[in-house]
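Here we describe the complex-level prediction in full. Unlike the single-chain runs in Section 2.1, the two entities below were treated as one system.
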Amino acid sequence: MAKFVTIGERIHCISPTIREAMANRDPAPILKRAKEQIDAGATYLDVNIGPAENGGEELMKWAVRLIQDNFDNHPLCLDTANSKAIEAGLSVYNPVRGKAIVNSADAGDRIGNIDLAAANGAICFALCSKAGVPSDNDERMACCQELLERGMEQGMDPEDLWFDPLFLVIKGMQDKQMEVLEFIKMCSDMGFKTTGGLSNVSNGMPKLIRPIIDSATVAMAMMNGLTSAIVNPCDLRLMETIKSCDVIRGETLYADSYLEL
Amino acid sequence: MSFEPKLRAYTAPVFTVEVGSGERKMTLGGESVQPLCFFDKPDQPAPLIGVEVSDIGFETEGLPELAAFYAGADTLAARAVKAASLPGASFVCLHFEGADPAATNKSVEDCVAEAKEAVAACPLPVVIAGCKNIEKDTALFTALAEALTGENLLFLSAREEDYKAMGAAVALAYGHKLGAESAVDINLAKQLNVVLTQLGVASSSIVMNLGAAAAGYGFEYVASTLDRVRSAALEQQDGMLRMPVVTIVSAEAWSVKEALVSEDDMPEWGPREERGIQMEAVTAAACLASGSDAVILRHPVSVEKTAALIAALM
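The structure predicted for the assembly as a whole is:
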């Protein structure tokens, strides 16, 4: 394995500030969040431009160049339901510091995004679902196989498919939590990389509780072999937990100042 | 079907550290293969050999070859020139053991004068080793660093106790290279690199001195430390452990009983000099096989043997 990969989630068009900045092509708010996340240690930055049905291609190109030009080609994760916009983003992406990530393909309508990743030498998030939440791990595994086959057909290295079990919200789906963790273990045992939107688990919880639940979840998931996650890197407790788990997993050598690195 | 080896691709080589100035220059580190696995990738740098000379001269009873080699070389400068003449030597290490308050307690001023003369005379890059007394070494290194500004020397070493003063004076104020010394403690090795970096010392100015032990005297700890440091550098691309490693073999090898006891006391062991050379050469080979980028040796025959080993493997 390798050090845990964190993908910063804070450039997301659900945020009114970011949505407005994207609509007006205003660099400042986006650069501010990019800097905060990079300073906090995010390996990748997610760039979520939303459904972006109109003008998505130009918007993604603009966002990719904006962030990479200002932050020494920091690696990015291109996140939208609009495949054309992802393709446009990949066309201007500089992979010198890490392959781009296509966020995401699933085993349903969006399986074609795997082809897009394969054609552009990118990593692809592979959601183990067809539509909506998978009912159990058998369904997740069936999706995983379909996604894997598609990637192999396209000549992808299985290392470049990062399987997403779909983290589920505890408030409402508490009984599904162990199942998600078990699926991560199944993927890990097969040698696959995994990822997911970690903060889903604490959705709807009080602000003070979320870092605690997110940290506990990431620790348990890392124990089961989780290799990356989409997270809020500005959550200090969470980042400290990830660094500590990396030490315990032996992915990074301990030094007294390990939290400062 | 023929066997096709699948090589691990190490994308992050060991950092390089340049020591010396003008015509006398050397580069430590830079490799991106496991120790001595030169066959894995072309153009890998060879490990280097440094020759240690003492400011007070070595005790040579029972060591006729060593005595003969330095015969007539009565100053540190003369010994440094002699040492530099050895085939296979890449640098000379001036060891100021006489500065130790527990030994002759030579003054900082005298050490500086000798060092200036030796550096001026020596045709190879120069490395400075202290006397191991924290207070004296700090004063000595600060004075030497100032007096020899521009020479780009390597100072061995800063420790947990004195890294701030050493880092500020030797590296930051006077622009020399600095060894970070940890006594066979991998976590401390990383920590020292972290704090030196946080102090503002560039990674291109830091060399790791991970400590050593003579073969048979806890060498397995040295081997595993060297091995884990190199793995963290190459496999985990740990930027806080990618500095090159310099190992002072001489002091360890020549301080164990096999290298110390006289032939009179142990006739069945044979000549002392032969035993010491074997201990030094064997320990050097083991360090190189575990990940040292440079070894510092004392005896001309050990230098010759180690140089032959490196040449045969390149």
